[in-house]
Amino acid sequence: MTLDQLPLGSSARIAAVDWTLLVPEEAQRLRALGLDEGAQVTLAYRGVFLGRDPLAIEIGRMTVALRRAHARAMTVETTHAPQAA
Fold it and tell me: Which of 8, 35, 37, 41 is deepest in the core (most CB within 10 A)?
């Protein structure tokens, strides 16, 4: 699934990014923020209006606003939170 399809509050690992779908300057900015293959992310917020933009992605201790078009370029694998004992 792509990052824009991740359920709200779910965590995932970015498995692949199709950088060809993004403008080179935007791709460079996302890489600088750590949104690259292998990064652990959590979908914290999804916009409520028609386009459902922006998405708020938590990566480490940082929250990044991301357009859905950018999130569609990122394939993710969901990770499961450890269950409480």
Answer: 41
